[in-house]
Structure formats: structure tokens, C-alpha cells
């Protein structure tokens, strides 16, 4: 990624304002702070990097943030001891509000065997401090969902980790857009009300109810429209299998299939980041 592409991102110091449990697998944490006056989410699946403290730390440990060179800050952060430097994880901006005060919502997927971000979210309280590396301009490369001008429909698949992004995409979709949506979650209580003006058909795939996997469900589904755009995000293995299905078996142009692996079974995000780039991107060149 070039410097020009990442220039729209800045560091923001925030604090927890409140938390709300959305279901067995999701908790919403609302952040606030003076820095949010310069925050500008692009909506849809807008991503950011969240820096969290280790247990026992009052705030995430980072180099001084007043350096205008974002790369220098990140380099200095990486050089710090693992057990001291802030934990960094990638998340989606569920919603940004500017009135009456600046607020940002991030929804966290909770698992019994979850990592440090999951554990932090499960015990977060008002006043807890975090830092995010997020967007300062709405048109930024952290928004992966890019609807082609000629698209007449959308197909979406997401698991619980990508449910916040899928929900935000549905809210953004223009009125009457045809959408076929598959949302895979662990428990019945994870179903949520989805706001959209799109002509959306939503299928909840609840694992505790014995629902088929996303790959099985989508393989049997009819694509909406003549020129669909596909967005799939969640567990990396499922995402790659679905992309192969659309590109190889359905014959869709790979440029019309956006796929994002948020996590991988058996790997932490740190380990996933260490996977050789060509392993993760081979499918993009197929």
C-alpha cells in the first residue's frame, strides 16, 4: 500500500462511553473523544486498526502520536516488546455519529476461546482508553465494498465477525437495490433487526439450529439480477471457498467479487498477518 493511499488515516485517542450486549455473540461498544472531530468514516465496511491495552495497563502503550509520519509510529510500535506494546486488531466502524457529540460504534464478536480483543471487549467499562488508526477522509481505502455502476444486484455473505459490516452495507445500499443476503451466526439470539431500503432477502444461517454452512447455502442460491456484485467476509477458509465458487463455478468476473478474510480457524490475527501474502492473494490472481 502506498503512502498516498494511507495518507487519509490518522491516530485517534478515544475512550469507552458505554457498552450494550446485542446477543450471545455480539457486544456493541460506543467510543467518544475530542479527536473524533477529525474522524470521517466512509460507511459500508469501513475498517480501522484498534490498539488496546494489555490487562493491568491503564491505556494502550504506543510511541508518541505527535509524529506526523504514521509509518514511523507504526515502526516504533512494532519494535516494542510484545508483552508491552498495545494489542492491535482490525475492526469495522458500525456507525459514526457527529451530533449531539462525536461517537463511534464498534461491534465485537465474542467467543469462549477468543483472543485478547475479545477478552477486552467482554470486560470493557466506561472510561477505558483505546487508540485507533482510522479514516480522516470518507473516501479511503479502508472501504472495500465498492458497488460497480452497472451492478443491478448484490449478494452478501457474512459470518458473525462480519455481521456489523454487512449490516452497515445494507443500511447504505440505495433504495430498491436487489440484494440476496446470507448471515451465518452461532446462536438464534444473534439474529438482529436489519435496517435497509434495499429490496433485500435475508437468510439467517444459525449453526445451533443445524443450518447448512454458508458455502452449501450459497451454492444452491440463485444469483440476483444479470450483473450482480458479490461481497463475502468472515472466516478466511469459508471466504476463499465461496470466492472460488463464484469465480470458477459461476463464472463471475473476479473484479466483481470482493472477499475479505477477517479471521482463520486455529490462527490468531497476529499469526494470520504472518501468512505469506501470496498464500492469501493467490485466489485474486486466479
TrEMBL record:
What GO molecular function terms would the record report?
oxidoreductase activity
Q: Which residues form the FAD-binding FR-type domain?
A: 9-142
List, alphabetically, the Pfam families matched.
Answer: FAD_binding_9, SIP
**Which named protein is this?**
NADPH-dependent ferric siderophore reductase
The residue ranges crossing the membrane are none
Superkingdom of source: Bacteria
Amino acid at each position: 500500500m502506498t503512502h498516498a493511499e494511507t495518507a487519509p488515516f490518522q491516530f485517534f485517542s478515544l475512550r469507552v462511553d458505554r457498552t450494550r450486549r446485542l446477543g450471545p455473540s455480539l457486544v456493541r461498544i460506543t467510543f467518544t473523544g475530542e479527536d473524533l472531530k477529525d474522524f470521517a468514516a466512509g460507511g459500508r465496511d469501513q475498517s480501522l486498526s484498534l490498539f488496546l491495552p494489555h490487562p493491568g495497563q491503564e491505556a494502550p502503550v504506543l510511541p508518541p502520536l505527535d509524529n506526523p509520519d504514521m509509518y514511523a509510529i507504526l515502526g516504533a510500535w512494532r519494535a516494542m516488546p510484545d508483552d508491552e506494546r498495545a494489542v492491535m486488531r482490525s475492526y469495522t466502524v458500525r456507525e459514526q455519529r457527529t451530533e449531539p457529540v462525536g461517537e463511534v460504534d464498534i461491534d465485537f464478536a465474542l467467543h469462549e476461546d477468543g483472543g485478547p480483543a475479545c477478552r477486552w471487549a467482554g470486560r470493557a467499562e466506561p472510561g477505558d482508553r483505546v487508540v485507533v488508526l482510522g479514516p480522516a477522509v470518507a473516501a479511503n481505502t479502508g472501504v472495500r465494498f465498492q458497488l460497480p455502476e452497472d451492478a443491478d444486484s448484490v449478494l452478501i455473505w457474512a459470518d458473525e465477525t462480519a455481521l456489523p459490516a454487512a449490516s452497515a452495507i445494507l443500511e447504505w445500499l440505495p433504495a430498491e437495490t436487489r440484494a440476496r443476503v446470507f448471515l451465518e451466526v452461532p446462536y438464534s439470539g444473534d439474529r438482529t433487526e436489519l435496517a435497509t431500503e434495499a429490496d433485500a432477502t435475508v437468510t439467517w444461517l444459525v449453526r445451533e439450529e443445524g443450518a447448512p454452512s454458508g458455502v452449501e447455502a450459497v451454492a444452491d442460491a440463485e444469483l440476483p439480477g444479470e450483473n450482480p456484485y458479490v461481497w463475502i467476509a468472515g472466516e478466511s477458509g469459508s471466504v476463499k471457498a465461496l470466492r472460488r465458487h463464484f469465480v470458477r463455478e459461476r463464472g463471475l468476473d473476479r473484479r466483481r467479487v470482493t472477499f475479505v478474510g477477517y479471521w482463520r480457524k486455529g490462527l490468531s490475527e497476529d499469526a494470520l498477518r504472518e501468512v505469506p501474502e501470496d498464500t492469501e492473494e493467490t485466489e485474486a490472481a486466479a
